[in-house]
Design a protein that fits this description.
about 350 residues, alpha/beta, pyruvate-formate lyase- activating enzyme, five-stranded antiparallel sheet, about 35% helix, Methylthiotransferase_CS
Length: about 350
């Protein structure tokens, strides 16, 4: 948990300066203040003011570029909207400058993120128009989009998907496959809307990896409701799921409904959905055995393709640095995906 990480950080020797950010600060500042070793904790307003204009310093082979924060959606289970406040967006000129700094630092994959990324809007520039500006930048790079809500995945955004610089990986929260439950959750779409969106995406990018979030055990999810979710999931071409058991949050509309689904039932449903997700992920991965694809090399001997396949890469040549975008031949070894670097195809890569 977050508290475990905070306590672990405060116990380091020598102890670093420890500044805590995020929803936990907004929700329970007294809890953070009571942890020995915490030097400062910043609420959202202070964080936004101090970090405005700062280019993030990535710690991995891919760079995260946060361009948006806040949310105005009214999902019945979510407290984040109250903690983070109204949507705010980084001005496009500032985003472009930070993007260029990351490219100049050698990053060849940049992940565009936000609390609710599809709400990006600044000085007449929406998310699709921002992406258009970023794609015009010269260089050998790719752009990965973080999670985008289905009701915010516009036709203007869809029109950009064929660009090969956009990773063929789209994470689109679903939450339930039961229309009645979606309505009770305060979600702004139906299962039919969601299915049509996936069809449009796959028409434009047939090789795309499609991820979704699912909450199980929400009040009102009886056995027939859960079965409808399973039937809907079976009917759509998703690749993987992030599955969460419902946990009531004070000050949310759903909190007054309590937590009527027994924990053992939620646990079993989570198990069923995660097993379903694992099978879909394996089926998707097998389709790419024997194909070649560009991937970002990571420091631990792995690599990540544009369509979110994680590969094990034995015998990486010394001249291939972590963070390099390289062509790999993909093969299966049991259930493991192996990426083989063909040196003759990357002889132009510099260290």
């Amino acid at each position: 948990t977050s508290l475990t990480f905070i306590r672990a950080g405060s116990a380091l020797k020598p102890k670093p300066r420890l500044i805590i950010l995020g929803c936990l600060v907004a929700r329970t500042p007294e809890l953070i203040a009571a942890i020995p070793g915490v030097d400062e904790y910043w609420p959202s307003e202070l964080k936004n003011r101090i970090l405005a204009g700062q280019t993030p310093v990535p710690a991995r082979s891919r760079a995260l570029l946060k361009v948006q924060d806040g949310c105005d959606h009214t999902c019945a289970y979510c407290i984040v909207r109250k903690l983070r406040g109204a949507p705010i967006s980084i001005p496009p000129e500032q985003v472009l400058d930070q993007f260029e700094q990351l490219l100049n630092s050698g990053y060849q994959e940049i992940v565009l993120t936000g609390l609710n990324l599809g709400l990006y809007q600044s000085t007449g520039t929406n998310l699709a128009r921002l992406i258009k500006k970023l794609l015009k930048k010269p260089g050998n790079f790719r752009l990965r989009l973080a999670s985008i809500e289905p009701d915010l995945f516009t036709d203007e955004l869809l029109a950009l998907l064929p660009d090969p610089k956009i990773c063929a990986h789209f994470h689109i929260p679903l939450q339930s496959g039961d229309d009645l439950l979606l309505k009770q959750m305060g979600r702004n779409y139906t299962t039919s809307d969601y299915a049509r969106l996936l069809e449009k995406i796959l028409t434009l990018r047939p090789d795309a990896c499609l991820g979704a979030d699912i909450i199980t055990g929400f009040p009102g999810e009886d056995e027939p409701s859960f079965n409808r979710t399973c039937q809907f999931l079976n009917s759509i071409p998703f690749t993987y799921l992030h599955v969460f058991p419902y946990s009531p949050r004070p000050d949310t509309p759903a909190f007054k409904s309590g937590d009527p689904i027994p924990k053992p039932v939620k646990k079993q449903r989570v198990k069923i959905l995660r097993h379903f997700s694992e099978n879909r992920r394996r089926q998707y991965a097998r389709k790419f055995a024997g194909t070649r694809r560009y991937a970002i090399l990571e420091p631990d001997g792995q690599a990540l393709t544009d369509n979110y396949l994680r590969l094990t890469c034995p015998n990486v040549p010394r001249f291939c640095r972590a963070g390099a975008l390289v062509p790999l031949l993909i093969n299966l070894a049991g259930e493991k995906l192996i990426g083989t670097i063909e040196e003759e195809k990357i002889c132009a890569i510099k260290t």
